[in-house]
Model the fold of this input.
Amino acid sequence: MLTSLKRFWRGEVPLRQAFWGYAVVYGLTVDLACAALALLLYLALDAPYAAAAVHFAPVPYYILAFIGVWRSADRHAGPMWHRTLAKGALFPLFIALLIF
Done:
Protein backbone atom coordinates (compact mmCIF):
# COMPACT_ATOMS: atom_id res chain seq x y z
CA MET A 1 0.00 0.00 0.00
CA LEU A 2 2.78 2.44 0.87
CA THR A 3 4.51 1.72 -2.43
CA SER A 4 1.32 2.45 -4.36
CA LEU A 5 0.87 5.74 -2.46
CA LYS A 6 4.45 6.70 -3.35
CA ARG A 7 3.76 5.91 -7.00
CA PHE A 8 0.52 7.90 -6.81
CA TRP A 9 2.28 10.89 -5.20
CA ARG A 10 4.86 10.90 -7.99
CA GLY A 11 2.19 10.73 -10.68
CA GLU A 12 3.19 7.27 -11.88
CA VAL A 13 -0.35 5.90 -11.63
CA PRO A 14 -2.53 6.00 -14.78
CA LEU A 15 -4.81 9.03 -14.85
CA ARG A 16 -8.01 6.96 -14.80
CA GLN A 17 -6.93 5.10 -11.65
CA ALA A 18 -5.62 8.28 -10.01
CA PHE A 19 -8.76 10.31 -10.60
CA TRP A 20 -11.55 7.74 -10.23
CA GLY A 21 -9.83 5.48 -7.72
CA TYR A 22 -7.81 7.70 -5.42
CA ALA A 23 -9.65 11.01 -5.74
CA VAL A 24 -13.29 10.03 -6.22
CA VAL A 25 -13.78 6.59 -4.63
CA TYR A 26 -11.24 6.76 -1.79
CA GLY A 27 -11.88 10.47 -1.23
CA LEU A 28 -15.62 9.94 -0.99
CA THR A 29 -15.17 6.92 1.31
CA VAL A 30 -12.90 8.81 3.68
CA ASP A 31 -15.19 11.83 3.56
CA LEU A 32 -18.35 9.86 4.33
CA ALA A 33 -16.70 8.03 7.23
CA CYS A 34 -15.41 11.26 8.76
CA ALA A 35 -18.72 13.07 8.18
CA ALA A 36 -20.64 10.27 9.91
CA LEU A 37 -18.25 10.27 12.86
CA ALA A 38 -18.35 14.08 13.08
CA LEU A 39 -22.14 14.02 13.06
CA LEU A 40 -22.14 11.40 15.80
CA LEU A 41 -19.73 13.45 17.90
CA TYR A 42 -21.77 16.59 17.45
CA LEU A 43 -25.27 15.20 17.96
CA ALA A 44 -24.82 12.30 20.35
CA LEU A 45 -21.87 13.41 22.44
CA ASP A 46 -22.27 17.19 22.18
CA ALA A 47 -18.62 17.65 21.26
CA PRO A 48 -18.56 20.38 18.60
CA TYR A 49 -14.78 20.94 18.63
CA ALA A 50 -14.04 17.25 18.24
CA ALA A 51 -16.67 17.06 15.50
CA ALA A 52 -15.01 19.92 13.62
CA ALA A 53 -11.59 18.30 13.97
CA VAL A 54 -12.88 14.99 12.61
CA HIS A 55 -14.74 16.75 9.79
CA PHE A 56 -11.53 18.42 8.60
CA ALA A 57 -9.27 15.40 9.25
CA PRO A 58 -9.38 14.23 5.59
CA VAL A 59 -7.89 17.50 4.29
CA PRO A 60 -4.32 16.08 4.16
CA TYR A 61 -5.64 13.19 2.06
CA TYR A 62 -7.40 15.66 -0.25
CA ILE A 63 -4.09 17.46 -0.74
CA LEU A 64 -2.33 14.16 -1.49
CA ALA A 65 -5.06 13.18 -3.96
CA PHE A 66 -5.04 16.61 -5.62
CA ILE A 67 -1.28 16.52 -6.18
CA GLY A 68 -1.29 12.87 -7.28
CA VAL A 69 -4.02 13.39 -9.85
CA TRP A 70 -2.39 16.60 -11.09
CA ARG A 71 0.94 14.84 -11.61
CA SER A 72 -0.74 11.83 -13.25
CA ALA A 73 -2.52 14.21 -15.60
CA ASP A 74 0.80 15.81 -16.52
CA ARG A 75 2.19 12.38 -17.47
CA HIS A 76 -0.95 11.20 -19.27
CA ALA A 77 -0.12 10.05 -22.79
CA GLY A 78 -3.73 10.10 -23.99
CA PRO A 79 -5.80 12.96 -25.34
CA MET A 80 -5.07 16.44 -24.02
CA TRP A 81 -8.71 16.97 -23.06
CA HIS A 82 -8.47 14.10 -20.55
CA ARG A 83 -5.74 16.01 -18.73
CA THR A 84 -7.64 19.26 -18.87
CA LEU A 85 -10.89 17.70 -17.70
CA ALA A 86 -9.23 15.84 -14.80
CA LYS A 87 -7.42 18.96 -13.59
CA GLY A 88 -10.53 21.10 -13.97
CA ALA A 89 -12.70 18.63 -12.06
CA LEU A 90 -10.33 18.55 -9.09
CA PHE A 91 -11.33 21.95 -7.73
CA PRO A 92 -15.10 21.40 -7.59
CA LEU A 93 -14.62 17.82 -6.39
CA PHE A 94 -12.53 18.76 -3.38
CA ILE A 95 -14.64 21.79 -2.54
CA ALA A 96 -17.70 19.52 -2.55
CA LEU A 97 -15.92 16.94 -0.39
CA LEU A 98 -14.79 19.62 2.04
CA ILE A 99 -18.26 21.14 2.37
CA PHE A 100 -20.02 17.80 2.76
Remarks:
- The CA atoms of residues 37 and 94 lie 19 Å apart.
- The radius of gyration is 15 Å.
- DSSP finds five helices and no strands in the chain.
